[in-house]
C-alpha cells in the first residue's frame, strides 16, 4: 500500500465511523444542526490528516533521495580491491601401496589453493602443498609453494603470467587433482621423464590464435641436475622449485594446443635449456612431448610420448643423453560413478646406452566417485623389463 493512498482510506474509515455515530444517535433523534456540526468536525479531522500525511510523504521522498545519492557516492568511490573476490580451495591424497615387498600408508599430498581477483582482468593464483604429512629435519615430507603467479588479460585473446607456474608440458602437469585422473599414483612417464609437477619462475605468454587453437610461450628458470651422483642428469632430481633458483642458464618452453573439436585435445610442447646442469661442464638439453586426450560419451583415451636429448659427454657415458617414455591409457565409465581403466607405460632414463634399461608397467584399476569431488581408487600394477615387480595400490582423493 502506498502512502498516497492513506488519506483516501482514512477518509473512508472516518465516513464509516460517522455513519455509525449517526446510526447510534438515531434513537435520540439528533437535530439537523447537530448533524451539520458533526460533519464539519470530521471534515476538519480529515483535512488535518491529509496535511500530516502529505508532509510525511514529502519527508520520506527526501530521505529516499538522500540514501540513493549516498549509495551512488559510495559505489563510485569503491576501489578495485573492495570490488574483488578471494577464493579458497584445495585437494588431498591418501595412498596405500604394496610393492617391492613393502607396504606403506602415506597421506601423500595436502594442498591449499588461494586465488584473488583484483579486477576483471588481473588475478592471482597459488598452491601451497604439504607432502607426506610432516616436514622438518629428518622427516619424510616437505612444505612447498607449488604455484604463485599473477595472470593479466592483455587483450581479449592474450594473457600474461608472471611468477611461479607449472610447465605447459604433458597432460596432468596443470590439471593434477586426484579426481581428474585414473590410478592411485600419477603415471610414471609424467613423473620420471617430464617430470610432473614441475614449476619454474618466469613469464608465460598465452594467445588464442583462433577458437580452440592456443599458443603458449614461456621464458623461465630451468633445471639444475646433479652431475656426480647416482641421480646425475635425471630431470626429476633437478627441479629447483623457485627456491634461490640458479638462473645462469634460462629455459624456453613453447606449446601449441588444439581443442576445437569437442572431447578432443591435441598438444605438442618443446623446451630448450642452455645448460641443464648449470655448471662448468655445460649440458644443453631439449625436451619435446606430444599427447592426445579424447573423450566420447563413456569412453576416454589418453596417450603421450616425451623425450629428452642432452648434449654432454658425461651424460652420454651414463646413457642419459637420451631419456624417453610413453603411455597409452583407455578408460570406460561403467556408470556415472564407476570407471574402469588400463594403462601401458614404458620409460627409460638411460635410453642412450646399448643395454635394455627400459621399464614396462601395466596398470589395471577402478575409480569410484561418490560425488564429483571425491574419489576412491584401486589398481594392480605389474613391472617388467629392467624392474621386475608387482603391487597393489589403494587411494582416496578429494578436491574442493
Describe this structure in words.
This protein is an alpha+beta fold. It has two domains: 3-76; 85-399, Porin (Beta Barrel), CATH 2.40.160. Helix content is 19%, strand content 46%. The protein has helices at residues 6-25, 32-76, 189-192, 313-318; strands spanning 85-99, 102-117, 122-131, 142-153, 158-166, 199-210, 213-220, 251-258, 264-273, 285-296, 299-310, 322-333, 338-348, 359-371, 374-385, 389-399. Strands 1-2-3-4-5-6-7-8-9-10-11-12-13-14-15-16 form a 16-stranded antiparallel barrel. α1 runs antiparallel to α2 (32-76). It is elongated and about 130 Å long. It starts with 5 loop residues before the first helix and ends with a strand.
CATH topology group of the largest domain: Porin
Shape call: elongated
Binned, the helix content reads 10-25%
Q: What's the CATH C level of the largest domain? A: Mainly Beta
Q: Going by CATH, what is the homologous superfamily of the largest domain?
A: Porin
Order of helical and strand elements: HHEEEEEHEEEEEEHEEEEE
Largest sheet: number of strands, sense, barrel closure: 16 strands, antiparallel, barrel
Distance between the termini: 47 Å
**Count of domain modules:** 2
Number of helical regions: 4
Strand arrangement in the largest pleated sheet: 1-2-3-4-5-6-7-8-9-10-11-12-13-14-15-16
Estimated radius of gyration? 36 Å
| Number of E-type strands | 16
Uncertain segments? 6-10, 12-27, 78-82
**Percent in strands:** over 45%
CATH architecture of the largest domain, by name, is Beta Barrel
- Helix/strand/pairing category: alpha+beta
